[in-house]
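Help needed: design a sequence for this.
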């Protein structure tokens, strides 16, 4: 399983649990050290985004708040809150799937990394069509 397919798998778990289908994984030295789906409804917590949960899991496992040798893979462009957390954790690289013109905080909206001291390398549009379709399917069933 590729890193990105692992993130997509987490997004599918979120979908099955009636959560907005976003999934994330954090990789260090070729090893997945954290993987999480969105869990806002489950936790009754608007901050329980997949990225934040992954950062928390990785930080606990590694015993540090600085994830400088880690990469995060996420199925949708991180929002401004998650982008800020990624910058604060000093994650090296961000790989994401679907662009989010309304809620994104990396290439859209606040463009958080343009205003932070730590600027991770960002690669967007990975399996964009597949990730965007999962989001469309989720919100279509909500209407």
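Sure. Designed sequence:
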């Amino acid at each position: 399983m590729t890193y990105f397919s692992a993130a997509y798998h987490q997004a599918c778990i979120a979908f099955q649990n009636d959560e907005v289908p976003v999934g994330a994984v954090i990789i260090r030295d070729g090893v997945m050290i954290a993987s999480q789906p969105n869990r806002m409804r489950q936790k009754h917590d608007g901050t329980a985004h997949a990225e934040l949960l992954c950062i928390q899991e990785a930080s606990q496992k590694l015993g540090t708040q600085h994830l400088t040798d880690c990469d995060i893979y996420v199925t949708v462009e991180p929002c401004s809150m998650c982008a800020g957390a990624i910058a604060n954790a000093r994650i090296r690289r961000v790989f994401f799937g679907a662009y989010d013109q309304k809620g994104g905080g990396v290439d859209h909206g606040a463009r958080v990394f343009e205003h932070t001291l730590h600027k991770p390398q960002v690669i967007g549009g990975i399996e964009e069509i597949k990730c965007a379709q999962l989001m469309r399917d989720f919100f279509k069933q909500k209407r």
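Residues 128-142 form the longest helix (15 residues).
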